Amino acid sequence: MQKLLFLSILCLLLVGWACTEDTETPIIVATEEAIFVGGDRIRISGRLITNQEVSASDHGFQISETEAFSSPVTISLGAKEGPGRFIGEATGLKITQNYWVKAFSVIGGEEISGEAVQIQTLEPQLESFSPRFSTVGKDLVINGRNFPEGTKVFFGDKEAQIVQNLFESRITVKIPAPGTSAFVPIRVVVQNKTLEFSEKFEYQSGKYTKVTDFPDPRIYNSVSFTNELGFHVGLGEVRLTGPYRKFQRYNLATGTWTEVSFPGNPRSFAFATPNFLGGGALEIDRDVFQYDQSFYKINGSTFERLADLPFRSQDQLAIEVGGDLYLFGGRVVNSQAVRKYSNTSKTWSNLANAPFALTSENPFFVYQGQIFIFNSAGELYQFNPSNSSWTLRTKYPGSLGQSYGVAVVQGAKAYVGLYRRTQEMYELDLSSFTWKIKNPIPGLPQSITVGQFEYNGAIYIMRVPEVSVNGVFPMELYKFETNAL
């Protein structure tokens, strides 16, 4: 019964088709749907509908900013044979603009149009950019939406070269040369609209300016300290000559050097902090040392002798915290020993050993009453003076050279690097313990840092070429502006 019903319906359809096959239907042009809408372009489909053979001399779309289609733009797709679907694209449109679009066909000299549909182009949007820190000439990628052809990218007021605009959503640019600031906003300009990221891009920075030369020949195994009177460097030995028996003091306000006499014996491998100086030795024969256990309180540029050290001291790491003096390691007996001098009781005490060997070659800094020391593997440990505990915090990411690195705190950042035979400098964020590379220092790579300090928002670093470097090469004092270009 069901088969009979199906055959009956089929016969009726066939009869109906047979009766109407010679009847021509009207020619209809339909405006269909937007296939793609972007910032400055749209892609839309239309259809020529008829059951007869038809030839259009032209077909396409008209687009206008007004519903009345005054001054429309015509997207001509040329001649078309037979009915069917067609697709057109308009580019160079205004962003976030309402447009009316209708399909058309020209048949027998008559233009037939479809109904108009309204389409609004999209608004450009920013999502992210990466990397957030880099150098000139490297690639940077901006992610977002609706970045049409003609989009421009600026780093501050410097326009970047666009390498690729992929799918109007991923722009790759070359980072341009900076202006005067290391931190610049990234702006994306699309037609008359400017978009700006809330977070700024950071250029690799760090400016080094040579300030002065040491007034005497190069010295080695010296000590340095800084106080209210200036930067002092001295003792040690003159290259290939003999002991250096004094200090030179540099006044940053006047830019002048002043000789400072030292009342004690000449020595190398001593220790010094802003308030204390002591220890050291003279090498009287190869690897044979004459030790000096004298100990001094520093008062500006004068030296008050205190009770002698109750131990030998050679190349110890000296750090002051809260008025007290801490001595770590050294090259005599126990290289992991930790000693404390109480400025109140004027007494020495032994603390628990450090977990690794230490000498004056190990970079260190003090932050919020805590001592931070890099071991020979570049690992940074936090030493708590209140309980003598050691905590691993991070690891230096650069080259360790041959020890003698620098570490200086400025605000909530520490600047670490310039190990022997390296020119690298890194910034350590003391909140997150993350690293960021800075610009390298100029000068001879075969150099050693002999002193460093912070003054008026800048870091000062004194470097000396290795003793093996021949020629007239002075000890040089550099000013390091951490975020300058």
UniProtKB/TrEMBL annotation:
The keyword Signal applies. Keywords: Signal. Residues 1-20 form the signal peptide. It comes from the Bacteria. This is IPT/TIG domain-containing protein. It comes from Algoriphagus boseongensis.
